[in-house]
Every structure is written in C-alpha cells, then in structure tokens.
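User: For my dataset I need records formatted as: sequence, then structure tokens, nothing else. Please produce one.
Assistant:
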Amino acid sequence: MLMRADMDALPVAEATGLPYASTATAKDAGGNDVPVMHACGHDVHVTSLLGAAQLLAESRDSWSGTVVALFQPAEELGDGAQAMVDDGLAHATGTPDAALAQHVLAFPSGRLGTRPGPFLSSADSMKITVYGRGAHGSMPQAAVDPVVLASMIVIRLQMIVSRELPPGEFAVVTVGSVRAGTKSNVIADHAVIELNIRDYSPASRETILTAIKRIVTAECQASGSPKEPEFELFGQFPVTDNDSGVTDRVAAAFSDYFGDRASTLPRQTASEDFSDVPNALGIPYTYWGVGGTDPEKYEQAEKSGRISQDIPVNHSAQFAPVIQPTLDTGTAALTVAALAWLGN
C-alpha cells in the first residue's frame, strides 16, 4: 500500500496572524528573497502521513503487508510526481496494491469525503504571444496595436465554454495575465497572454485547446498581424480520476470509522499531480478531501450566506487549517484507509 503526501509551500506572505505563522523566505527565479507559506495545507498532509506511519509501525501485530510512505516535492509545479517516477521510484516501491492520498480543503474540520470517478480537474496553463507593429501613440495608423488585438482575444475566449461545450460539461478558461507595452505613448510590437484551463475529460480539453488556437489565429489575421502567434503549454496537471473499486472500499471504511462525519464530496476544480505516480506504477488509486475550517466559523458563514467571502480557501494568504481536529482526522483517515487492505 502506497500513501502519499505533498510537501512544498507557495510564494505567499502569510497573513493569518497566528503565533506560528511562517516567516520563511526562498529565492525566486531572479534570485530575490520572497516570503513563503504552506498556503495549501501541505504541512497538514505531511504531519498526517507521519502520524499514520507511526501508528502503523507501532501496531504491526494488527496488520500484514508493506506500507510505503511517500513524501513528494514540487506538486505545486506539476512535475514533482513525474520527477520521482523518472528517478526510479518503481525500484523503491515495487508494485503496491493501491495508492492513497488526501488534501485539506475549506470545509468543516473533523469531516472528510471522497467520490469515485473524476474528483480533481486537469489543468493546463498556456502562454500566447501575439505580434503587432510598434509605433508612436500619436500615429496609430502606422501600427498594428497588440493591445487591441489581445483585448479582442480575451473577449472571444470567454465564449468557448458557453458556446462550444455541451451545457452541463464543466470547464473553466481563465485569462490570468495580459502584458504589453512600456509607456503610455508607445504602441508595442507584441503582447503576451497567459491563461489557465480546467476540465474533467480529454474530449473537453481537446475542444478547448483547439478553439483557443483557432480564435487567436483568426484574431491575428483580422488585425493584420505581421507574424503568426506563438503558443506554449506549461504547468500541466492530469485529471485525478478515482478508481471506483478502491474508492468504494475506502468510503466503506470511512463510514464505519467516522460515521456521519464521512460523506461524498462534490468534484473539485483544483488540480494535482498525484495520479502520475499510480498511473506510472500501473495501480489503482483514490484521493479524498479532509476539512480544515473551524466548524463554528464555517457554520456562521453558511448561515449568513458568506462562505465564499468569509472562509479562506487554499492558496489564500489567510488559509490556516485549525490544528485539531484536522490532524487527528487526516491521520486517522490514512490509517483507516490503509487498514482496509492490510488489517488482520
């Protein structure tokens, strides 16, 4: 049995006000010191897996088999799992019966849940460079303005999900960055658009990627762009598609141990690279969510209809899972799930 926890942090300055708030820094790509924090709860994941490993090690008479505790770096970059695979992970683990993983999320602490099938979406980030012709701001007739071109592209991209995918088919296309120019009276010669795509199926992904390239190319032609656009995919994460048999077995064990604190969670639009490990090993897997929000605060926000405003989510500078019962729940969840296979 393989149990995995991710352990990297994020370049976010912690704003929780907690006495143990992160004061750590790390070097960015430019060599500058930037603040970092566990804004996605990976510290909870590591602690829970350490606790589960200790519990299992101290109770060897109650189970039989082999447990692999896998602590994975670079999940936030989308390539940590694949890097471990490429570095010979299979030689260290063999072929476990199944793989298990979990993530702390912004719902009441003490609760947990999973679901069979697609649980986390895939993700693709794309960098698009479109080209114009630079000129003085007072002479736009001499230019092909890449700012206008990029603006038209951004508007058209918003129509992909609503007009090219079937109603009810989940997908998100988010333009996160548009950069062009250096001065108010200078028309630049290019613009860079960066966007992110989320979906649950290969068919939707292909439809979206094809539509993006078609729209961008057509808008460049309509604007008289002097050069073809350039496309670069990066930051790619696979769909986390829970095996139904493994998930049902774990869900039954959760129900027996946690009672009504265990439930079926809705699909999540976050993304993970965990599935690269079991896919490479050729084994089934399941992935579940553990609540990390103070139950009283969550209840208050729910009653006022302000969950999205008042409850910090993953990657927020204010994301801070309550220590208990979050750690007990996460530790117990991994232990109970492992014993569903290994228990005597």
